[in-house]
Write a structure and sequence with these properties.
This protein has 12 helices and 15 strands.
Length: 396
């Protein structure tokens, strides 16, 4: 296939200019819209460009909140094609379309604005995040298309080249061919992938197969949304962004292979991204017709994230998740709002959340450790109760 790039231009609003005072007391100009980003780029060398300063919202925290989306999706007619095995009805991670008794396509797309400053890291994280949806379905990603929005009047083309290079490196590590793409002009950098994968219909894992008594296992620690927000705001005093980047660049391939090795013992799965741990657990529990219990002390959390959120550093997407989940989650009285926000933190390229039969748990944990997944933590269980209802407990 030839690779065609189609560029669509559209009118941008005129920027407004006002005067403001910096923290050091000097007078400066404050810009909104195109003028702000153009002025910002003009003050930086290409080596010093900070991509997060060109994004109003970062990574999966830029997603529309679940309360906004779920009502809209509920108004859509269901697919009439019987070969659609998974559509949007259960808010699953990807669609699945049956081709034969032994083969189905897994279809997904994901894109967002910069969550980190380095262009290659941004591309790599966005690619890992998009591929994760296929892994969450028990599938293997095989091909992808680049999805690009880029402000070429503000940033050099070499920066886009670095974004694409970072994504290509991660895709190659996953055995995925990036075969084309599409670009538009935009006010903010945007990057992601449309991904196609394969799965056997009899071996796919959805978010709707959980059963009361299933144990919940998590394969990456949470808190990257809070840490990246701290870094964007020059408040990452603990230097935690390096570990957050490493985790976000890490594919969920090992976790998916571990789940597939356990086979029928894994009843349901999802990946933890923009809706946060509790938001995605709510979707899994709701689709499975179960309630869920989570032990706060068992959830792996990046230490810097706990420190920063207690100091008031938190992305807007995390607050939106917390507000939505107030109707679904009950918390132990000893849990502070900062504790609750950690569990709602909007993740980018987070781990897999797996609902596993009790007799398969040790096998799964062993497979995760053998494949060096970032973590293998038992955090709770599914229980009988109102679908999607969550209870968060704390020891003592």
């Amino acid at each position: 296939m030839q690779y065609y790039l189609t560029v669509t231009a559209y009118a941008l609003p005129q920027a407004k200019v006002a005067s403001s005072t910096s923290m050091c007391g000097a007078r400066r100009k404050s810009f909104t819209g195109r003028a702000f980003f153009s002025a910002l780029a003009a003050t930086m060398s290409s080596d010093a460009i900070r991509l997060t300063q060109f994004a109003k919202r970062a990574g999966c925290a830029a997603k529309q909140p679940p309360g906004y989306l779920l009502s809209l999706l509920g108004q859509l007619p269901p697919p009439a094609d019987a070969n659609v095995l998974v559509g949007s009805a259960t808010a699953d991670d990807a669609a699945v379309y049956c081709l034969s008794d032994d083969l189905a396509l897994v279809l997904t797309t994901d894109f967002f604005t910069p969550i980190v400053d380095d262009p290659a890291d941004f591309g790599a994280i966005a690619a890992a995040n998009a591929l994760s949806d296929v892994y969450a379905m028990g599938g293997a990603p095989r091909a992808a298309l680049n999805l690009v929005g880029f402000p070429d009047d503000q940033l050099e083309a070499s920066i886009l080249g670095d974004i694409l290079r970072g994504a290509a490196e991660v895709a190659a590590a996953a055995g995925v061919s990036i075969v084309g793409g599409h670009t538009i002009k935009s006010e903010e950098p945007i990057y992601g992938l449309a991904v196609v994968g394969f799965v056997s219909p009899g071996r796919m894992i959805t978010n709707a197969g959980g059963r009361p008594g299933d144990v919940l296992a998590l394969t990456k620690p949470i808190g990257v949304g809070i840490i990246t927000t701290a870094a964007k705001n020059d408040a990452d005093d603990l230097g935690a962004i390096a570990e957050a980047v490493r985790l976000m660049r890490t594919l969920n391939r090992a976790a998916a292979e571990a789940a597939c090795a356990v086979g029928a013992g894994v009843h349901a799965a999802t990946d933890v991204t923009g809706f946060g741990l509790l938001g995605h657990l709510r979707n899994l529990a709701y689709a499975s017709g179960c309630a869920a219990e989570v032990s706060f002390d068992a959830v792996p959390v990046l230490p810097a994230a706990a420190r920063y959120v207690a100091a008031g550093v938190c992305p807007g997407g995390t607050h939106a998740n917390w507000r939505f989940l107030n109707d679904w989650a009950g918390y132990a009285p000893s849990l502070t709002k900062a504790d609750q926000l950690l569990l709602c933190d909007a993740q980018t390229s987070g781990g897999l959340l797996l609902a596993v039969a009790p007799d398969a748990v040790e096998g799964l944990l062993g497979e995760l450790r053998a494949r060096q997944a970032p973590c293998a933590a038992v955090i709770g269980k599914l229980v009988a109760g109102a679908a999607g209802r969550l209870t968060v407990t704390r020891a003592g």
